[in-house]
Amino acid sequence: MKTSRPFWKMLQRLHRDEAGAVSLETILIIGAIALPILIFILKYGWPKVREYFFKGLNDLGRQSDQVTTGG
């Protein structure tokens, strides 16, 4: 029982220590705001970005074929 006393004192001291609590709360608030925005962008914005990218790749492929065939 004597060895558990320092553990409980350390646990109480750790519980009272609030260093870093403001940083953690700030990170959680930023995450709560950023996560829905990220989900919205991925759900509605990504298909348009993907379409634009594939259109560019197809145009590049057509132009490459024209250069190699000489037409």
Describe the model.
By secondary structure, the chain is mainly α. It has a domain at 25-71. It has two helices and no strands. The longest helix has 49 residues, at 21-69. The termini are far apart.
**Nearest-integer average pLDDT:** 86
Roughly how much helix do the residues carry, as a percent range?
Answer: over 70%
- How much of the sequence is in beta strands? under 5%
H/E element order: HH
> What would you report as the Rg, rounded to the nearest angstrom?
28 Å
Structural class: mainly alpha
The number of strands is 0
Tally of individual helices: 2
Shape: rod-shaped
Spans of 5+ residues with little confidence (pLDDT < 50)? none
Distance between the ends: 90 Å
**Biggest β-sheet: count, sense, barrel?**
none
Write the layout of secondary structure elements.
Elements: H1 4-16, H2 21-69
What are the defining features of this structure?
71 residues; mainly alpha
Summarize this structure briefly.
With 71 residues, the chain is mainly alpha-helical.
